[in-house]
Design goal:
It is a single chain. The protein is an alpha/beta fold. Helix content is about 50%, strand content about 15%. It has 10 helices and 8 strands. It has helices at about 20-35, 55-65, 80-90, 110-120, 135-150, 170-175, 185-190, 215-230, 230-260, 270-300, and strands at about 5-15, 40-50, 70-75, 95-100, 125-130, 160-170, 195-200, 310. An 8-stranded mixed β-sheet has the order 7-5-6-4-1-2-3-8, with helices on both faces. Helix 5 packs parallel to helix 8 (about 215-230) and helix 9 (about 230-260) runs antiparallel to helix 10 (about 270-300). The chain is elongated, with a radius of gyration of 25 Å.
Length: about 325
Amino acid sequence: MDTSLKLSIVIPCYNEEQVIEETNRRLQQLLEGWIRTALITHYEIIYVNDGSRDSTLKKLKELANRNQNIKIISFSNNFGHQAALTAGLYHATGDAAVSLDADLQDPPEVIEEMIQAYRSGSEIVYGVRKERKTDTFFKRATALAFYKLMLFMGVNCFYNHGDCRLLSQRVLREFKKYEEINRFIRGIIPLMGFNYSIVEYDREKRYAGETKYPLRKMISLAIEGITSFSSVPLRIASLLGFMIFIGTLLLSIWVLIVTLGHASVPGWASTVLPVYFLGGIQLIFFGILGEYIGKIYMEVKKRPLFIIKEKFNFED
């Protein structure tokens, strides 16, 4: 039985100058230790610089010059976290690839347990946070609302799972077949099936720097996930429209009865409020339709998901 294992670590980076050296130090220390204990035999760390505007790329190049196992993909612009993660996974050559964020909130020590699960037959290993004690109440509440909304809308995703996961090379090959521009990787991976297992861990505080997922981006991510994997909003719009139609029909019958009985009371409220109500509903529906039409528009343009400006330590 072949016990050799090459492990790829994929880390998207955007303005991570304050944390990237510590992240690399912890990773290298762990990886060299796992080689000594024969848990793995080879490794590569793939950093994807997503158009950082600070000295992140400079520090990554310094790290890559000292270690040929450290590889860099640098984008020509900021294309977003999901695009950076995709690029890293496309270039991963290991038997298994683990994706991590650079902020050390998902502790790299959890990778050891992921490798054990992979050796036991799991093609996908999801890293799931036990608790969110280090997050603010607002962050915990919005995160809970995010996952519940996704599940309600029919998007298959794991509660408290971000982008910390292990994928086998077989899964990576299948992942490359997904060509959509509007991508939500947390929804794509569960959609693929395969044997999977879950590894739980305690989420740590961000080592340094600022979060890359404020409320605005969380809302954007939720909309991206829902509209990429679910048609439930369109069905809700249709159902609500039908209910309003029935309600309006009943109201019309009531108005007719009152009018025939000469008991009608003139007033602007009975005229103006329904107009505003129905107008608001229509605008909401137009917005929902616009989201889906916008996605179709972006997909048919076939723009590249990302543009690589330069690479380091990759073979030709």
